[in-house]
Write the structure tokens for this entry.
Amino acid sequence: MSQFANRVEVMSELAKNMDAYVQEYLNPIDSNWQPSDMLPDSTKENFLNEVKLLQEAAQELPYDYWAVLIGDTITEEALPTYESWLMAMDSVNQVEDQGQGWVQWIRSWTAEENRHGNLLSTYLYLSGKVDMRAMAVSTQYLISDGFDIGTSSDPYRNFVYTSFQEMATNISHRRTASLAKQHGNPQLSRMCAQIAADELRHAKAYRRFVSEIFKLDPSEMMLAFADMMKKKIVMPAHFLREINGQKSSLFEHFSDAAQRIGVYTTQDYVTIMQGLIQDWEVEKITGLNDAAEKARDYVAALPARLERLADRIKIPELSYPFTWIA
Ligand SMILES: [Fe+2]
Ligand SMILES: [Fe+2]
């Protein structure tokens, strides 16, 4: 039996360390990078010339790359959905907490994340390659539709989700960075790499929170982990749609493009899962109740099972014509 009766107690135990977590996993605002550090400065005389160079370099990037970069940007731009979802977790109370504890974490994390969509969408605007109206429509739909990622308001399930999701964004931004470099675009490469570094820090934070919860409430944490793995982690972009508002298979087309250029693949999904299992030392966790023992065995066997399935997946060779790309 856990010494803590419920999740609210566990979460408030963790919240006692919040200042230390913020210091370790988030950057001080004044010295943090900002989108303008990496973009042409419109107050400068050579602005138009820099934009011209940016647009020339953009010509070298392939079609699927644009599809992926735009989809990634829309995902980042749906940040209001993520912030409000996290604020609604049990044990988080925006009014009573007065900016302390988990409210402090969620706000500060959001403030860092907010730079990602800002940087990427400004780049896309300047690139001359993107139908900004079509992209904005998709973004507005994604925020307006909201999402259901299967976590309910449970903090344990939410932290499994964010641990996974931050790793997934780290991988995809890291890959768009190296592809940009290969296509002779060091400027865009630097942008994606900066974002990827943020995502990695965030992933470490959420993984740490789960590690701490495993110490305090192992059975419930294990059950939450297994439940999220069973449901599969759905990417926020899963709910994407285009102009005309049709609920479509747009996410599949986006995901196919990402698989084709190797930015995010089914194998990556399995690798992230393996990483979490190792990081949380799932196989060594003891003191579990019967249900949690079963959950641990289920989770431990899952990567090998998914790996066999990943081998069999066929990706369509042809690109889908996205309204986003001019
Ligand atoms: Fe992000
Ligand atoms: Fe993130």
Q: What stands out?
A: The two ends are 59 Å apart (CA to CA). The pocket of fe (ii) ion (ligand 1) is lined by residues 76, 113, 116, 169, 199 (CB under 6 Å). The chain has 13 helices and no strands. Residues 283 and 300 are 7 Å apart (CA to CA).
